[in-house]
From TrEMBL:
The lineage of its organism: Eukaryota, Metazoa, Chordata, Craniata, Vertebrata. Keywords: Metal-binding, Zinc, Zinc-finger. It comes from Salmo salar (Atlantic salmon). InterPro entries: Arf-GAP_dual-PH_domain, ARFGAP/RecO, ArfGAP_dom, ArfGAP_dom_sf, PH-like_dom_sf, PH1_ADAP, PH_domain. This is Arf-GAP with dual PH domain-containing protein 2-like isoform X2. It holds the Pfam family ArfGap. Residues 12-111 form the Arf-GAP domain. GO terms for biological process: heart development.
Length: 364
């Protein structure tokens, strides 16, 4: 068997290769490649026969050479999917890269949908107080760095005008219950508000997502024009490091435990909680500082505390009070403790002190 080690270093555990494109792919991406027979043809690198001409072709190309050609003009804001990302992001990246050739320099006009500074489209949006999804018109503008949405297609007055300053967008297909589900979050009077949307067309929803990223990137560059692109790109959109249900009690720790949906974000060091996973408005939030500032986390809960339905406790100490949470499973308990420790271990940046001060003012 021909040794492929030289060209395999760009793909983790590649079991497949496209012998038309000259690239090695993982089993997950091989499914999308099979859906593109005019562009890509897949073989197993271990089980299928490779004749000499195909071997030579793979030696000539390989992932490094292919990426140099197919990713020549990827905009810095464009999201490159990672291993744990959802299917729609991976599928559309492959299609944009190989099928539509959006990044080779041949078809730059195709990038105008998400890089022109103006995006308008119809998305299905979940109602604030119910589970029904309704069509809403969305308008994204780089001119004033806003995202607007309207209750009907012909409406002139927007239902909401959202600033790019704190806007975040992340795919949440499992939470939303749709393979193209996108969660858009922003601050409203210092409280997180969520919009849950989707589009039936996978290319359209990914274009919308990248249009949001493009506008956020432009906003960040305006705020800090001397910053390097590589420093700004990680700030465009952010994902939580842990989400899920826990039970929470009140300040005296004698109030009844209530089940809440929690989201922990390392970027802004906030633990936000909602009544359910699809709630529009945050019920409250806890700032997570460093150990040197009086923050710590441990397993279990203090003796004498009121009990809840769940058994696996997490105690979070802050300078202001002690928070007690209960998890349904021991695995969840371990994961939450690890996530809290990760945030606590990160040094605080200047903006974090402002966030902490603002959150304390809100509670007074």
């Amino acid at each position: 068997m021909w040794s492929m080690s030289k060209n395999l270093r760009h793909v983790r555990q590649p079991d497949w290769a496209s012998y038309k494109l000259g690239v090695f792919v993982c089993v997950n991406c091989s499914g999308t490649h099979r859906d593109l027979p005019a562009i890509s043809r897949i073989k197993s690198i271990r089980l299928d026969f490779w004749d000499d001409s195909l071997v030579e072709f793979m030696k000539t190309w390989g992932n490094a050479a292919a990426n140099a050609f197919y990713e020549k003009c990827v905009p810095p804001f464009y999201y490159r999917p990672q291993e744990k990302d959802c299917v729609v992001l991976k599928d559309q990246w492959i299609r944009a890269k190989y099928e539509r050739r959006e990044f080779t320099g041949e078809n730059n006009s195709l990038q105008q949908v998400y890089s022109s500074g103006l995006y308008e489209g119809i998305l299905w949006k979940k109602g604030k107080d119910n589970k029904q999804f309704l069509k809403r018109r969305f308008l994204l503008s780089e001119t004033d760095f806003t995202l607007r949405y309207f209750t009907n297609e012909d409406s002139k007055k927007p239902k909401a005008v959202i600033s790019m300053k704190d806007l975040n967008a992340v795919f949440q297909p499992e939470k939303i219950g749709h393979g193209h589900g996108l969660q858009i979050s922003y601050l409203e009077e210092e409280r997180t508000r969520n919009l849950f949307v989707y589009h039936d067309n996978s290319q359209e929803i990914v274009s919308c997502f990248n249009a949001i990223r493009a506008t956020r990137f432009a906003y960040l560059k305006k705020v800090d024009p001397n910053a390097r692109d590589s420093d700004l790109v990680p700030l465009i959109t952010r994902s939580s490091i842990k989400e899920g249900y826990m039970e929470k009690t009140g300040p005296t720790q004698w109030e009844p435990f209530k089940k809440r949906w929690f989201i922990l974000n390392v970027t802004d060091r906030k633990l936000s909680y909602f009544k359910t996973s699809l709630d529009a408005l945050e019920l409250g939030a806890v700032f997570i500082g460093t150990e040197g500032h009086g923050y710590s986390v441990r397993e279990g809960q203090s003796k004498g505390n009121r009990s809840g339905r769940w058994r696996f406790g997490v105690t979070l100490e802050t300078p202001d009070r002690q928070f007690v949470f209960l998890c349904d499973q021991e695995q969840d308990q371990r994961e939450w403790i690890e996530a809290f420790k990760l945030v606590i271990s990160q040094p605080m940046l200047p903006q974090h002190y402002n966030t902490e001060a603002n959150m304390r003012r809100m509670k007074k």
